[in-house]
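User: As part of a screening pipeline, I want to sanity-check one entry by hand. Below is the sequence and the SMILES for fe (ii) ion. Please return the complex as structure tokens so I can compare it with the automated output.
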Amino acid sequence: MIKTYPFTLDLLPYAYDALEPVIDKETMEIHHGKHHQTYCDNLNKLIGDMIDLQGLSLQELLSSDQLPIKNNAGGVWNHDFFWESMTTPGVSQIENSLKVEIEKAFASVEEFMAKFEAAALGRFGSGWAWLVKNKEGGLEITSTANQDNPLVDGLTPLLAIDVWEHAYYLKYKNKRVDYVKAWWQVVNWDKVEERLSP
Ligand SMILES: [Fe+2]
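Assistant: Here is the complex for your manual check:
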């Protein structure tokens, strides 16, 4: 769905407690209802004063040369994407066609997971780790700082983990590693597959 100004916060595709015990209800309420909402509100405030930008899509605003617009547009886009990347723990499995693509790029699912975790843990400060499809159609892992987005570099996001402390601090405290390793249980692989072959 193409989003344009004024931007509204979508409801989560599941209940706030749906990702328990991996991601607790309170974290989800604050993350969606406060952090995500604030990116949305800030973006509307910024764009509200700039009539020439009001026709641009959210995706187009990701490459704005005005940092506050880029950051808040990324905050809205990335979280929309993140919520849809997750589902109730244990209900989603990697199906064959996705597995084949992962093995082609990373040799094995285990190797892919290890590299993705390394990207998530290696991101200093706040940001994201991503599984992306490159321009040649192959899979790659990347990470971005703050609310930056790989679309800007011509890559197609397939999966992302938010590694800002607000995503995990209430439950996991400073143990990002525990959050990242537990997070695999809530990945919505069906959604990843859909993004790979739309
Ligand atoms: Fe976040």
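Points to compare against the pipeline: Residues 25-84 form a domain with the Helix Hairpins fold (CATH 1.10.287.990). The two ends are 13 Å apart (CA to CA).
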